Amino acid sequence: MSLTTSPVFGTRVKSCTECRQQKLRCDASKDYSQPCSRCSRMRLNCVVLKSFKRTKKPTRAQLQAELDRLKQQLITSDDFEPNCTAPDPLMLPVSTGGHGNVPGDTSNNSQPGGKPFEARISRVAANDPVFLPQNTFTPDPDCQFTSSGLTMTCCQALDDFELGSNQIDDCFSLFSLHYSPKLYIFDSLMDPNACYAQCPLLFWTIVVTGARKYSKDPTILTLLGPKVIELAARSMFSHTERLPTIQAYLLLCIWPMPVDTMHKDISPVLSGAMLSLAISNGLHVQGMGQDFSRTTLEHNENECIYRANLWVLCTVSSQCTAISHGLPPPIIFDTFDLKLSQEQQLAIVPFKVRFRKKMSQTLASCVLELGRCVQLIDESGGASSVKSMIEISTWQFTQMESECPDQFSRLHLLCARLQIQGFHFFLGPLHRDDSSLVKLYLLACSVIEMAVGLDETENFSSSATAHSQKMLVLAPCTVLRIAKSHLAPVLDIERGRRAYFDNILLFRKISIQDSDLASRTTVILTQLWTSRNAFKNSDGTTDSLLLLCRSRLSMSVVFDCFWRWRREFAGQQTPYKDTQNETRAAPNQLVPSLGHPNGGTESSNHLLSSLSPNGSFPDYDWLATLDVPLDFDGCFQPEGQIPVLDTVSYEVLT
């Protein structure tokens, strides 16, 4: 350990400069003969300086000035060849790590594990150039960057969790490959040091998002996830760097942290906070948002484009989050919807994002209107109003098919139609349209088949959004309910069975933890498929098309299945009554035996006998939980494709 030139007097042990800079507790020995544990572990030079003063983080204005200086230096440098294209100044790396280094300082360049940022991105682009978005700057191998243009990623710490430079680089690389290309609000080349200096919340959110599929260290997601959520809650009332905070909230809504129950999912809360922050900062108004600022803002075309894309993504994400949770979606008026200037204002937004906005706005309006119609379904003409609204809404989405820019947009369009036509389940037995239910069955199969196809060609499961996962729960629940109804003789049961279990296999690939929602969905879907009693009513009749849960809009189909699963496999009494027993016409007395793809069937009574719901069931509003016993090891293995489930304790999704 390096000592200071002047002795350190006093009984109190001073912290080393590295720990003082990070505001961490230092366990240096009193005689300073040995380095502290943190410096030893991170291979840092443990030095105690009596005259050391902690360096504050640079302001945004200082960072921008340094970026401009670096850009000018790169252009005028003799080492930079004329045939090399200078990168965008927003993409230039700036060293503003946790050690307080100013840009251009190379004092930490000898840090073990640190890699030049441009070299790392160049390696990533060479390995998988397909995922790189447009306008990506790839350094020419013949070009030599100046020393000030190269930065080494610094180690960072969040509370008591420390992350090395190599791990940070890997997580940022994974984020750049699999996640940021789906959005248009992130630079192609992001320097982790500059990102941390600008907004620690955004930095840690990018790290934890990239760590979702980080096989080298799966513990990063488990340990860092709760800390990022706490940091997001603390940042909600911060008055600095609002736009990066909105970016972080957007990522946490699209790819939320894995949870074991839906009750713990804070996506609806974050989406509401994100939308409120966006409006309070004037993102819903085209331009720089001068009317929402206390200082004079200079017009910047790149800033206007960035704000427009961020706003569109915020509205789409908020609406998708609400709809996928069975909540009323928000509809906000903005200047991008004005007909007089719509073409000019949306010209700066990519066509894919514009299409998603149009589809999301249409879906939100249709779902809200159908929700109003369902509330009046018991009145005279109420069922006819629901049918008419379903037909009108379906026609609107059919007109959009020719505008789909890619297969992912086509999948979202099919999911939107699935949600609209799912309102047929709200109709009573006397008003159901069998032909519409058959079409709904085929549509649900098509949604699953397209998702499975995209996974084979585009690796859909590696970065599936939360909204897509919810839709892939709605689709098999729709197939299940219609396949177990009186329509089974006229359906292609084999196609539905194949799609149903392909969906289960897809969720196995989507799952990122053993006990997350995707993993537990496979348990519920497998048990419901073989169940003969899940849709049995209190009077002994069976009607799989009857909805008891009717307040979650199109997602009522899913939540109703969850409650029926609780009743059979947990012994929990349902809080709903068979309100339509008196008006039910010709109920299904026999449930078709669906079985598994291998032709085998098994009564759910055998599964029920192995359950022991002895644990308590916390009251999460109406979303109660249950425990599946530890000795449950899965149900079936159709065609040898579905592996045996891990022997863990499962709770209900909600």
Automatic annotation (TrEMBL):
The keyword Transmembrane does not apply. GO terms for biological process: DNA-templated transcription. Pfam families: Fungal_trans, Zn_clus. Its main location: nucleus. It comes from the Eukaryota. GO terms for molecular function: DNA-binding transcription factor activity, RNA polymerase II-specific; transcription cis-regulatory region binding; zinc ion binding. Residues 15-48 form the Zn(2)-C6 fungal-type domain. It is found in: Nucleus. Keywords: DNA-binding, Metal-binding, Nucleus, Transcription, Transcription regulation. GO terms for cellular component: nucleus. PROSITE patterns: ZN2_CY6_FUNGAL_1 (PS00463), ZN2_CY6_FUNGAL_2 (PS50048). The keyword Heme does not apply. Signal peptide: none annotated. This is Zn(2)-C6 fungal-type domain-containing protein. It comes from Exophiala xenobiotica.
